[in-house]
Amino acid sequence: MADQNHVVMVNIVTPDGVVYDHHANLLVASAIDGDVGIMASHEPLIAPLKIAEVRVKRTDNPHHEDAIAVNGGFLEFSNDLVSIVANSAERARDIDLRRAEYAKQKAESTIKTAEEKHNVDDLARAQVSLRKAVNRINVSSHK
């Protein structure tokens, strides 16, 4: 394991439990206000997250980066501990690509129907579903 003075602990949790728990040299996430990179000794931070990929450069394999599809939530960093709390999150290796592609097609169909019927509520929900599906598809390519 790497020198404990230069690592952060990364925890990603959802209502279903812990999705990710590792030591890392670097974490990159997409906050609402822009991308944030966190290394050891970073200033404390709390940031709301976008529906996007979180990348983690682990200490046990410096040539590998873990990718996790995070669907919003928030990130907190303090005392070399990154905690991400999200409604849902999946590691690249756990994503069912066929299911994600089906969700994408279904969301695109719902968007088309909602636009034709001028249903703004269904349109907004379908656009979020589409962003989640596209995020999962993109992250799945990092297996």
Automatic annotation (TrEMBL):
Oligomer status and interactors: F-type ATPases have 2 components, CF(1) - the catalytic core - and CF(0) - the membrane proton channel. CF(1) has five subunits: alpha(3), beta(3), gamma(1), delta(1), epsilon(1). CF(0) has three main subunits: a, b and c.
Segments forming domain ATP synthase F1 complex delta/epsilon subunit N-terminal: 9-89
Protein topology in the membrane: Peripheral membrane protein
Functional description taken from the UniProt entry: Produces ATP from ADP in the presence of a proton gradient across the membrane.
Principal place of residence: membrane
Keyword ATP-binding appears in the UniProt entry: no
Molecular function GO labels: ATP binding; proton-transporting ATP synthase activity, rotational mechanism
Name by which UniProt lists this protein: ATP synthase epsilon chain
Gene Ontology cellular component terms for the protein in this record: plasma membrane; proton-transporting ATP synthase complex
Superkingdom per UniProt: Bacteria
Cell location: Cell membrane
Record key words, sorted: ATP synthesis, Cell membrane, CF(1), Hydrogen ion transport, Ion transport, Membrane, Transport
Domain ATP synthase epsilon subunit C-terminal: start-end pairs: 94-140
Protein family (similarity comment): Belongs to the ATPase epsilon chain family.
InterPro entries reported for this sequence: ATP_F1_dsu/esu_C_sf, ATP_synth_F1_dsu/esu, ATP_synth_F1_dsu/esu_N, ATP_synth_F1_esu_C, ATPsynth_dsu/esu_N
